[in-house]
C-alpha cells in the first residue's frame, strides 16, 4: 500500500519534556526519525501546545532545542489535546498530499492518543512510533498507570484497534522506513 507520510511531533516543548519519562531517549528517537524523514523528503509537522501554563513565547512553551523547527517545517499551534481541533493541521496535511501520519511526542495518554484517534477519524492512515512517545513521570502516585505501563498499554491498544478503511501500525522507530522516491512509509 502506497502512502504519502508526514512525521508529526506533538508537544515536545521544554516544560513537558522537563517532566517526561525517558525524556532524553524519546527526544533522541524523534530527532533520528526527523532526520530520516527530512533526508527522504517527508514533511515534518511540529505541533505546539499553548495556553494556560504554556503561554506563547515563554521558555517552557518553546520546542526543545534538539527538535527546534527548521524554516521549512510547518508548526501548528493547538489549545487542546486534539491537534486537529480548531487548528490548521488537517489543511496543512491536505496541502502536502499526506495520507498517513507517523505520530510521536508527549503525552502518550492525552495528546498523542487523542491526535492519533482524530487522525484516523480524519481518514489518515496511522503509524504510532512505539518508542517515540512518552508521558510524565508520576510524582503524586495517583491512579495513573506507571509511565512504562501507559506507553505499553497505548501501543497495545493501537495494535488492536480497528478503524474500517484505515491502516494502523505500531512500529519501533528502527522499523519506520521513509522511502524518498515515493514518500512511502512501511
TrEMBL record:
Keyword Metal-binding assigned to the entry: answer is no
Which Pfam family, an example, fits this chain?
Answer: Isochorismatase
Q: Identify the SUPFAM superfamilies for this entry.
A: Isochorismatase-like hydrolases
What are the protein's UniProt keywords?
Answer: Hydrolase
Domain Isochorismatase-like residue range list = 5-136
In terms of InterPro entries, this protein maps to: Isochorismatase-like_dom, Isochorismatase-like_hydrls, Isochorismatase-like_sf
Give the GO molecular function terms: hydrolase activity
State what protein this is by name: Isochorismatase hydrolase
Name the species this protein comes from.
Streptosporangium roseum (strain ATCC 12428 / DSM 43021 / JCM 3005 / KCTC 9067 / NCIMB 10171 / NRRL 2505 / NI 9100)
